[in-house]
Design a protein that fits this description.
Helix content: 55-70%
Number of domains: 2
Distance between the termini: 27 Å
Strand order of the largest sheet: 1-4-3-2
Order of helices and strands: HHHHHEHHEEE
Largest sheet: 4 strands, antiparallel
Structural class: alpha+beta
Number of helices: 7
Strand content: 5-15%
């Protein structure tokens, strides 16, 4: 049963990647429409300019929402979800709000999203979910920015630390490889020409399972 569940999870992840790829293709194709809008606007009569610019803004914001959707599918991050909601609300307010009540509601919604990002989605919360960083990020800056305790005496950058851990553990460096140091798990996300590009840093949960009583 566990093996079947693992296969389902892997299959779902692959489907998400495929969907993200298809959405990305759609966004690239949609860029041509944005270019067409830009080219056509200067030649319009004044009576039609407002509606045309409105359609241009709607299309542009829709492409941005599509990009945020791709990021959400790939990262599974609550921050990406909030960004998606933020841009969707902004599109609604800028393009489709006709009354002051609509603008006030949209403004309140945007303010709530910003409040959630500032006061609820803290660096520690993002660390529990998993934060993706460049392999060139200095360990000293990471420890300062998200309050971690990654040793700084083994390497200067997070990519260098992974190479050092790979040597110590005799474990190959490849996409998906995971290394644990202290209460931090490091996962290689992407590589190019044999070099690490992106790394996911995540806090390891040390919650102990409650022992079952002896019967």
């Amino acid at each position: 049963m566990d093996k079947f569940r693992h296969l389902l999870v892997r299959g779902a992840n692959h489907v998400e990647v495929v969907l993200a790829f298809l959405v990305t293709i759609g966004m690239v194709v949609g860029l041509f429409s944005v270019v067409r809008y830009i080219v056509a606007i200067p030649g319009l009569e004044m009576d039609f300019t407002y509606d045309y610019v409105k359609k241009f803004l709607s299309m542009t914001l829709l492409l941005i929402i599509g990009i945020e959707l791709v990021l959400m599918l790939l990262s599974h991050s609550s921050v990406a979800v909030l960004d998606l909601i933020l841009f969707a609300t902004a599109r609604k307010m800028l393009v489709y709000s006709d009354t002051m009540i609509d603008i006030l509601i949209a403004t309140a919604a945007i303010a709530i999203v910003f409040a959630i990002k500032k006061y609820l989605v803290t660096s520690k919360y993002m660390l529990r979910e998993g934060k993706i960083l460049s392999a060139a990020s200095p360990i000293k800056n990471i420890n300062f920015d998200i309050d971690t305790n990654i040793p700084e005496n083994k390497a200067t950058t997070i990519g260098g630390l992974l190479c050092r851990l790979s040597e110590d553990e005799c474990k190959p460096i490849e996409p998906g490889a995971e290394f644990t140091i202290g209460d931090i798990k490091l996962k290689i996300m992407t590589m190019k020409d044999g070099l690490i590009e992106d790394v996911q840093i995540q806090e390891v949960s040390h919650k102990k399972k409650r022992a079952l009583p002896n019967l």
